[in-house]
Protein: Putative drug exporter of the RND superfamily
Amino acid sequence: MTTRLQEKHRLAGLASGRRSKYAMLIFWLVLVAAAGPLAIKLTEVQDNDTLGALPATAEASRAVQRAEDAFPDSQKPLAVAVYVRDGGLTGADRAKVDGDRTAFTRYADGGQVPPAIPSDDGQALLLSFPVAGDADQRADAVADVKEQLGDAPAGLRTALTGPAGGEDDVFDAFAGMDTTLLLATAATVALLLLVTYRSPVLWLIPLITVAVANQLASAVVYLLARHAGLAVDLQSQSILTVLVFGVGVDYALLLIARYREELRRHADRHAAMAVALRRSIGAIGASAATVAIGLLCLLAAHLPSTRGLGPVGAVGIAAALLAMTTLLPAVLVIFGRWLFWPFVPRYSPDAVGLDVAAQHGVWRRIAGFVGRRPRAVWLGTAAALVALSFGIGNLSIGMPHDESFTKEVGSVTGQRMIEAHYPRGAVAPAEILAAAGPADQVVAAARAVPGVAEVGEPQRSPDGRWVHIAAVLADTPDSDAALDTVDRLRDAVHAVPGAQALVGGDTAYLLDEERTVGRDNLVVVPLVLAVVFVILVLLLRALVAPLLLLASVVLSYVAAMGAAGLILDAMGYPKLFVGIPLQTFLFLVALGVDYTIFLTTRAREETARLGHRRGVLHALTVTGGVITSAGVVLAATFGALSVLPLVPSVQSAVIIGVGVLLDTFLVRSLLVPALALHVGPRVWWPSALARPAIRPVAAPPVERAAAAS
Structure:
């Protein structure tokens, strides 16, 4: 205990000392000067292949690897141009398609484009070809192809789809989105800070500090990606920005609120900051540890995009913690009390023994309401959360590809056009990779599978060892029926002796993704809960309280999913991307525990002084305003994800935003304190606080600190 207190004193002295505060500022200026150029380069190391990657052990991944080894010249993304005229194609339409076929040869891998495939109803034609070149060259080629398609006879509808078209749509949708997200996040935080502090100046300090933390986090992530193989993609970079701003501002609100209290008790602002930092660093550090270690639990996931999010987010939390406990205190002390203008906290000898709860009228009344009938309050709150959870019935897992964008894009339009005139699986057939010897048996086995509409002829690899067989499914590639067909197809071709058959393709990918996510849920969810429980036990030195808190955040998560189900269903986005439940669970459990940590650490502190009942109610009163502000800021910050044009981002924004608000206004404000009062001092078992004793009601302790040099 003594060592821990000494460490807190040293940290507080560094950030708040009369001379060391300037050293701290200079240190951060040097750090930012070094980090800035590296942070800008973060987009250079993005590897967005992880967004769609599966574990190497998945059959779809093994099929891709075999195809790359056996057919090295045919693994370029396929562009599929579709032409449709309702009522039947004209001669001019066919001439347009022939001209495009000739024009597209310069972009095709191998320099050839196969003849157009007509639909049975005579209303559509398809041109498909693999696009040559690297990512930049393919982007230029696809742009030219789209321009060529746009010059069509009146009444002829055209679109570009297939993997190449979809890839281009994703990058078009995200063009400039990193800057847009950063500006939206910063503007949201700035507005809420301005409302919270009602000061024309103070709001700038935490905003600038958290922006500095974001630069540091981006620079560290860049270095880890460049030199340590850390996977970074569009998703993890977006989450990094939101997480640093949201969590960093939360820490700032907590510290500044405590600093404001101490400024009224200390004539010397350096001493006030030293006390404020020492008395808040425990809660802030425990909060950061909970979220960071919770994020690192994602390393146990098999899905690469989920696994890569863990260390990136943990770096962001560490950067926010460092900036808010070193840079922010130093800057606040340097500028002095006038930052709070027009509500400047003045030192008053009378404030030394003043109970600050008297200054929180609204939360004093809420605490009184909770204290009068705690059993009724926690039962009523729990019932409301359970009622909200029934909204989960509006949600389903599995998002069709054509519903993944918030706006209409060419690849989705093209897919729908193909589905209207061709077998539904024509745009994305199942791909069978098998040994060449028993190829005929594999074809026969595939044709006998219910749900397979057509099986193509085997294409032999250059070395003659393997064959590629395309199997067109009767159902839409991302439908449940198609997934079941691929399952049956795998069973059928696996049974062919000596075939060594693997089934890949888009539908096989979705099937393997669903199974991988299911496995990750079973492993990561219990791991996160165990980590959070251990941290709470160490922090509160109790067993009962951590169990109750863990149960409360799980209930909050289920209620958040239910409430989000009602909202997302109204928005038209009820089909969740498969990775959403796990990712939102992690954030809501870890971040939800954040606010409970802020409350319970203060409650433990006050219980030791005032006794259990008065301590819990006093903690609720004095932390209510700042924690509520922090919750609103965090919810609004995650809401900024909705500016991204992908439905999974909107779903994450809604679920996390709703969950944080429920946790702030219901769980932390009503459920947890009422439950603690109902259980009584036993909530702190087995610590000494669980043994009731008569304690005098004392004035708040006066902690004097000499400012460090």
